[in-house]
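In this section we walk through a basic example: taking a raw amino acid sequence and producing a predicted 3D structure, encoded as discrete structure tokens. The instruction is simple. Fold the sequence below.
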Amino acid sequence: MGRTQLSPQRLSETRKTNIGRIIIFCEGKTEKYYFDYFAEIIKKNKYTDVEVVLETANGNAQTVLNFANEFMIDEKHNQKYSTYGKYLAFDCDDPPDIQTVILSANGYELLISNHLFETWLLMHFEDVNEKISKREIYQRLSFHLQGDYSKGHKGKTREIVQNGNIEKAIDNARALEKKYSDRGKTIFTNIKEMNPYTSVYKLIEQFMVEISE
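The resulting token sequence is shown next.
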């Protein structure tokens, strides 16, 4: 699997967890394409099922949460996915009351990025430790891809996974979370002060273990 394999040392250091059956609700196409990449590899394991659902109306974190809640209320969906682990993937740039959205997401694991998912993607190529603008994030991704980065482009998203360093991204994201934690900050109380930030690494590391074994 090339770069989607954990190094032998990292694999031995990482505690094996059973992903099981999960469903991920995404805010945008970029997130869906990214998670789909791993889901397509993992689906070969009959004990694991990763479903990735795109919230089709162009919206924000609140619309993703609303969509997920409505999706799970549907009798057919509830019957099929009631025992699945449920994840929400969204950016923290909108709506203005993003803190309220996070606090309202009971029953979901959060795969959030501040201020956008591309913060996590850029970590595949370089450490991201200071707040930078959206425009600069896109410019840096374009530099690393040696061509214009296009949001919601399946090919570009997969190129990042294949050519970037996922272990580096995981280390960067974990170090950021520790820095905020050491300062007493959490996503449930201080998300606007936690930029850059992403929790996507937590699930991706589990995916990587699953793929590497």
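Looking at the output, two observations stand out. The beta strands are 21-26, 49-54, 85-91, 109-114, 197-198. The longest strand covers residues 85-91. In the next section we compare this with other chains.
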